[in-house]
């Protein structure tokens, strides 16, 4: 069974630029999560989708971050404009309902 | 909101020594999960504990959930270099499977 796929794996941008990350969850997993993991910290949930609907985005900085999951499968997370403090690994995870979360390899973002 | 505190932040052991990391919450937890993240890797699910006082074993790893369901521990017996990584506990907060992660304990094992 294929795991969670993410791209790109690495991205370097300058502050105030825009960036987008893509995630393809495990086939059949209705729930998709985006996490931000700053170096030395645990993952922090940014947004959670159930199919194509948002069930939690309480920690998403909505002035600059947006995410969508059209058709309830793939998802994109966008940052516009990026700030220095957005430098982190962005992890996508998926689960089959309310169950074990499977993480993708992540996208390491560096904002200069 | 829900928070889980992990100690220690960092542990450095010689290969063959034991290792324990602790996870604490001020509120009662419905359940707790443990993840391992290798250097440069992503979190990988290890186990979930649900019942008060529950103890589960996976080879050299022993997981415990406190009687009051406010704390948990992960103990590794006779560490090996393959145990290197950061161990996170995570607890559910509210509905919809929302996980709150601890800051993690980074384990270094020296041969």
State the main characteristics.
heterodimer; A: 112 residues; mainly beta; 7-stranded mixed sheet; 4-stranded antiparallel sheet; 11 strands; B: 111 residues; 6-stranded mixed sheet; 5-stranded antiparallel sheet
The description of the largest β-sheet of chain B is: 6 strands, mixed
Overall shape of chain A: globular
Mean pLDDT of chain B: 94
Structural class of chain A: mainly beta
Number of strands of chain A: 11
Mean pLDDT of chain A: 94
What can you see in these coordinates?
The complex is a heterodimer of chains A (112) and B (111). Helix content of chain A is 0%, strand content 49%. Chain A is mostly beta strands and 112 residues long. In chain A, strand 4 and strand 5 form a beta hairpin. Chain A starts with a strand and ends with a strand. The model of chain B has no long low-confidence stretch (mean pLDDT 94). Helices cover 0% and strands 52% of the residues of chain B. Chain B starts with a strand and ends with a strand. Chain B contains no helices and eleven strands. In chain B, strands 2, 4, 5, 9, 10 and 11 form a six-stranded mixed beta sheet that branches. Chain B has a five-stranded antiparallel beta sheet with strand order 1-3-8-7-6, with no helix packed on it. Chains A and B meet through strand 5 and strand 10 of A and strand 5 and strand 10 of B.
